Amino acid sequence: MNDENGHDMATPATAMPDSAPVDILAAFEELGVPSGYRAELIEGEIVVSPPPDGHHEQVLSRVTKQLHRRSATDVDVAGTKGTITPTGRFIPDLATARAGLFADAEPWMPADGLLLVVEVTSDHPNRDREQKRRGYAAAGIPLYLLVDRSRDEVVLYSAPADGDYHTRQQQPIGKGIELPAPFSFTLDTAEFG
Amino acid sequence: MRPDAPDDVLVAFHDIDGRLPEAFRAQVVDDEIVVTYMPDGEHEDIIADVTAQIARGARQRMHCSGHRGLVVPRGRYIPDCTVAPAGHFRGQGSWAPADGVAMVIEVTSLGGDRDRLQKKLGYAAAGVPLYLLIDRAARETTLYARPDDGTYHAQIREPFGKGLDLPEPFSFTLDTAEFG
User: Fold this and answer.
1) Cβ contact A49:A122 at 8 Å
2) With an 8 Å Cβ cutoff, are A33 and B16 in contact?
3) Which residues contact B14 (CB under 8 A, 6 or more apart)?
4) Is A12 in contact with B32 (Cβ distance < 8 A)?
5) Which residues of B fall within a CB distance of 8 Å from A13?
6) Where do the domains of chain A lie, and which CATH numbers do they carry?
7) Which of B1, B2, B16 sits opposite A31 (nearest CB)?
8) CA distance A167 to B175
9) Is B179 among the domain residues?
10) In chain B, which among 31-60 make CB contacts under 8 A with chain A?
11) Is B43 helix (H, G, I), strand (E, B) or coil?
12) Of A57, A80, B17, B55, which residue is 20 to 30 A from A153 by alpha carbon distance?
């Protein structure tokens, strides 16, 4: 990441991906992966993950249902939307935007207009807790909901600025967690466990 | 955790690995395929420093390789440096079990948590007797030893600049002054 004078900014977490991007980005774009696998570019590395387990999908299905039924604003929900962030190319488990935004989006779209992204942890929870949190914050996505299955908790990150989220609300799985505007409802997590 | 997943992941891994350009390396770490690009110069300088010290200081004649594929439980790792008695690598294919390897070395880059957590467990599970982790972010060197039951039961940690004693079959003090 460079400042306006072209100088390398200090944070090591974001400094390197942009210093080696051309070759790894080209390799990433050309890399075909087997059906069901997803390839993401995360802080300068290509990460290919296998199809998730059924419980992972069930949690996402419960979140999706509530977003459609209870959100105060009509939103669209995407399960495999390629999202370009300053620290990589991520595929959030769920991406949410105002109805219609996805219609004209490229396969890899900038994060502008996304309202909320959701990740449900699998075998690599630190990736969702750390690298993806930083990337979504750097992209300015207003809300990041992390369903942390190994810690049995749900975390809502908000107020992104300067490459990280500055507000964090957390509830044990089972308790409701308040989603602010434009959703404005309490997400029920009782069936996440 | 999916006990049935690794075989599928390995098939996908070999497919991807076979198609990657030369400047990339693919590994399997905890059921994920990770593709990395060539490391930066400081990373290689540290490896070169350690390799030279092993060549000069080790009591037993050792060979170091930066291109060994190790088959470990739940993974296919390529350590930054694999150290084994001279001649050990001869006759091995691209991927080989870790038996007979004396020490593996990792120098952290971005994604250092993989070296600190996941790969440490993998090397311990494979029974690699010594794992030397050179952590550039924390500016310290850690030697993990006595693997048993999937974990290392001994460790020595020194900040960059302090010597670190390598046990048998190396039996010399590693100088870490040039690491960072």
Assistant:
1) yes
2) yes
3) none
4) no
5) 110
6) 52-192 (3.90.1570.10)
7) B16
8) 44
9) no
10) 31-38, 40
11) helix
12) A80
pLDDT tens profile A81-138: 999 999 999 999 999 999 999 999 999 999 999 999 999 999 889 899 999 999 999 9
Over residues B60-72, the pLDDT tens digits come to 999 999 999 999 9
* Interface touch A44/B37, C-beta < 8 Å: yes
Contact A23 B23 (CB under 8 A): yes
Residue B123 domain flag: yes
User: CA-to-CA distance for A11 and A18, rounded, in angstroms?
Assistant: 12
Question: What tokens were used for A193?
Answer: 């466990």
What is the number of structural domains in chain B? 1
B165: three-class secondary structure by DSSP: strand
Report the 10 Å Cβ neighbour count for B90.
Answer: 7
**Residue B146 falls inside a structural domain:** yes
Chain A residue numbers touching B8 (CB-CB < 8 A): 50
Single pTM value for the model: 0.83
Token pair recorded at residue B9: 């992941």
Map tokens 């070999």 to a residue.
Answer: B14
Quote the domain boundaries for residue B66. Answer: 39-174
| Facing residue for B32 by CB, picked from A12, A31, A124 | A124
B9 touches chain A (CB under 8 A): yes
In DSSP notation, A101-163 reads: GGGG--SEEESTTEEEEEEE--S-HHIIIIIHHHHHHHTT-SEEEEEETTTTEEEEEEEEETT
Q: What is the pLDDT of residue A21?
A: 58
Q: In angstroms, rounded to a whole number, what is the distance separating the alpha carbons of residues A116 and A180?
A: 10
Q: Is residue B92 part of a domain?
A: yes
- For every residue of A49-107, DSSP letters joined together read EPPPPHHHHHHHHHHHHHHHHH-SS-EEEESS-EEEETTEEE--SEEEEETTGGGG--S
At B108-167, the pLDDT tens digits run 987 688 899 999 999 999 999 999 999 999 999 999 999 999 999 999 999 999 999 999
CATH number of B124's domain: 3.90.1570.10
**A70–chain B nearest CA distance, Å:** 33
Alpha-carbon gap: A5 to the closest alpha carbon of chain B (Å)? 23
